[in-house]
């Protein structure tokens, strides 16, 4: 431990990471540098600075990463239409590689010997942070206090705070019912009553969305403009990636859109129940698939759908910086060259409905698809040979007595 002189800690200012500051100082005898990322969690971050100062931290980094998060992480992921286990839009997962990136950048800048985080030994985040750190700084030392110390509960953390003079905002005996994590893409809830997968949380849990049944009785219509697979405007107003997400979170949340109650399979092997609010992401996924439906070649679209679960799994498990994710991203980004145009959506009481899509790069040809007179654009007689050739293997099998039944 004496070889560690300086550590950069991913610091939230909450109970866990405040204890970690003091624990690192005492057990490693090192200087602690704190790093707090603003990725759109919607909280005032200056209190984290003040608390770090009270803990004796001299070098404090609070970085606004909202645009980088949206532009370089969320938007590329949505080009892939990534969904984990059929439902989860990866709101926590996609934030971790950015935090890991900035963590090691600061470590290099200040000459730190190690980085540290407050993720527990039961969750996915420890894997995500550390895989990212090792990928970007191969020789880095990672300190994960939850895998080293004897503090095993919230009560023991509070006792540690009392013994070591660490300020705690919440009074002893008060317990937040959920563990929450928020960024521009989502807010998640775990723990408390949610540990019973049959228990329904109350309305007081949800922060970003109104109850669908209490959403406006009149639908809200919006138009999203796309260029290269990314949203570049809302209702004709040009917006940056972070501005797009902030706007859609508000509009969709007001219409009760984006709630999810999920039991997922963690990378470390256990099942975990969590609830999520992802208003902007729910709209973005629906709209992106709609614009792709008229601009992507059929086989390209189908190949993307085949690759998507693998891509989503890589993001979920922490392999954002892996060569295989980068390879998939290159293919996905290449497919987006023609994904340009406009999607019109109706938002109504928790639902997102595509009501229109148009593009100068559309592959939809009304003269061919029409049920009316196509004036020779498509020769229906061609279908006979097409069907007979595709039936050939089944006809041969049937003649050999290999009945399809």
Report what the structure shows:
There is one protein chain. With 405 residues, the protein is of the alpha/beta class. The chain has 3 domains: 6-67 and 91-164, 3-Layer(aba) Sandwich (Rossmann fold); 179-296 and 339-358, Alpha-Beta Complex (Argininosuccinate synthetase, chain A, domain 2); 366-399, no CATH class. It is built from 12 helices and 14 strands. It has helices at residues 15-28, 46-54, 66-79, 96-110, 125-136, 154-164, 241-254, 279-295, 298-317, 323-335, 366-369, 382-399, and strands at 6-10, 31-38, 60-64, 114-116, 141-143, 179-182, 187-190, 220-227, 230-234, 237-238, 259-265, 271-277, 341-348, 351-358. It has a 5-stranded parallel beta sheet, with helices on both faces. It has a 5-stranded antiparallel beta sheet with strand order 10-9-8-13-14, with helices on one face. A hairpin with a 5-residue loop joins strand 11 (259-265) and strand 12. Helix 1 (15-28) packs across helix 6 (154-164) and helix 9 runs antiparallel to helix 10 (323-335). The radius of gyration is 25 Å and the shape is elongated. The mean pLDDT is 94.
